[in-house]
Amino acid sequence: MLFSSIPFLFYFLPAVMIVYFLAPWKLKNAVLLLFSLIFYGWGEPKYLFLMIGSILAYYGCGLAMERWPNRKKLWMWLSVALGAALLGIFKYADFFIGSFNAVTGLSVPLLRLALPIGISFYTFQCLSYTIDVYRGNVPAQHNLLSFGAYVCLFPQLIAGPIVRYVDVARELNDRRHTLEGFTLGLRRFLVGLGKKVLIADGLALFIEHFRAAQAPSVLFYWLYALAFSLHIYFDFSGYSDMAIGLGRILGFRFLENFNYPYLSKSVTEFWRRWHMSLGSWFRDYVYIPLGGSRVSKVRWVLNILAVWMLTGLWHGASWNFVVWGLIFAVLLLAEKWLPWLKKLGSIYVLPVVMLSFVVFNAADLGAAVHEIGAMFGLAGLPLVTVETLYYLRSFAPLFVMAMVGATPIVRDTCRRIENTAIGAVLEIAMMAGLLIVCTAYLVDGSFSPFLYFRF
């Protein structure tokens, strides 16, 4: 079930709100758990057992660490092994088997298992719980319903942000519901819905036209790189906005996941602004435990390479994702050793980010090499064609809207409107208009899943 769908907006979400707010406090987590399982089962009924099994296993590991503190390291490593096994079997098995076959010339049969939606997100959340219990950052959760609600909380279940248990532990047991929180959450949700439906889906349509182009050109490839870079930002940040907004309505304060990354003056800064929940997860649970920067220079370089290879693999079981991660590892190391790179600012950051996303979205490494080569005139294509100019003219307003929307201009303008005498009335009118327009697009449009569902 998609947030940006008629069934979710007008059936599922109203039902959740009515039951949740009518339920007494002691039953609210049970209501969230029930509806979250329905939400997940709507699209992945056969993998509900996997999620329920994960909840029971990680819940048990937390209790075991508390019950037998002298063996808590064992239970922590068992939880890590479980997470690695789940991801290894369902997400990476065919990738490794295929790579093994390519190297050895053998024909080991692939498992061909369907990838459970959101498995990377909820597995990382479970791991953050057991690791933090092991470290003594939080006590083990004794209420199974509350722990289950945390793991499969539907606002952020299948596309993030990655919510750590330590950040919501208090709110699972004691959270406030206010009219202000409900209003702010609803506004944030509608803004995210608009980013997804009005901008991300429009850019996805441009990308479809590019893929089907009869007369591609160098300019068309660059426009594609720009379109996908903006598409993935508005698609994922739009989902994060909706998740954060729904969380606020329900009394949870999820941490931010994006902070206008395309304003970054360096790649280092870009990754402090982009998918912040993933970056901080790898920093705290992989990079620092490996020794971080407090090791020899060679070991530090290996730590960086390992973290970014894992970051690439987290996004998908393909070599282009591995290369994509390693590209950023090299760029981050280069910025440490060549400080003058940062002085180039956006002139350097935006092109390399766009090129990296071409690698990210390519079908495989061969396709990535071809597409980047075409961008630099190495594919024998003309600089521009009539078809390219047609689509440029058709989508120019959307490109301008997206580029402006990727800056704080819209946010700051809305804040100034809020401070006027009729700000509240205008805000209500704008939000209502946004919901009506998005609904019209959804009724008239086609299915467009969130890109990060596959992770």
Describe this structure in words.
The chain has helices at residues 6-22, 25-43, 48-67, 72-104, 119-135, 144-151, 165-173, 179-211, 218-249, 267-273, 276-287, 297-315, 319-337, 340-343, 346-361, 365-375, 386-405, 409-418, 423-444. The chain is mainly α and 455 residues long. The radius of gyration is 23 Å and the shape is globular. It has 19 helices and no strands. The chain folds into two domains: 6-175, no CATH class; 181-265 and 345-454, no CATH class. Helix 1 (6-22) packs antiparallel against helix 2 (25-43), helix 8 (179-211) packs across helix 19 (423-444) and helix 13 (319-337) runs antiparallel to helix 15.
Would you identify the regions where 5 or more consecutive residues have pLDDT less than 50? none
Cα end-to-end separation: 16 Å
Reported for the largest beta sheet, the result is:
none
Radius of gyration: 23 Å
Give the helix tally: 19
Mean pLDDT: 92
Supply the helix-strand structural class.
mainly alpha
Total E-strand runs: 0
Q: Please bin the fraction of helical residues.
A: over 70%
The share of residues in extended strands comes to under 5%
User: What general form does the structure show?
Assistant: globular
Task: Name the helix and strand elements from N-terminus to C-terminus, one letter apiece.
Answer: HHHHHHHHHHHHHHHHHHH
Number of domains: 2
